[in-house]
Amino acid sequence: ALYSNGLYDTADELYASAVYEGYLPWPVIEQKNKASQLKIDLHGMNRALAHSAVRVALQQEIQATSWQINGTVLENDAIHKLDKDVIIVTGKGKRSAQHLRPVIRPEVQRMLQEEFYPPLGTSSIPGNMGALAIPVSDVKLWLKHQKEQKGIRLLAVAGILKNISSGNRLRQLLTLNLNDSTGEDNTDSNEE
Question: Residue 190: inside a domain, yes or no?
Fold first, then answer.
């Protein structure tokens, strides 16, 4: 219901909670000796679950690429170690209503093009129609953009908090309240 009503963020939160609580499997396939490649398996998922699984897994990558110590943002090497295309296993559609007519694959392709900025392109993997490859260059560009946007939002919040903690906002409010209670007119008196 959340997915079909476009409430993707709420659906993602619910999905992440279900994974955390052990009700759903984490879609990222851990691969020995292939730490530089992200592989997401959507086998057995419906469109709504697959949608959230991809979004949550890629958002998790953003969080894994940086952290803070004493307010200083340090880069993790994860973004630099990523040197292979991201693989999304969608399946061939064997369990779809119309046998071998994939449902997940076109949904994932649509989502990556329409809901991600910059858009993430996909290509078929030769010999494996049940999987998509996202070019590593697209993923790195997307991760960089997401981190920049996160930084802009954090700077805006820091500015607000600085204004509050420095007392500037409190002084402004007190001045407004004092002027209102004394009946002083704060408008420009030079109007003709």
Answer: no
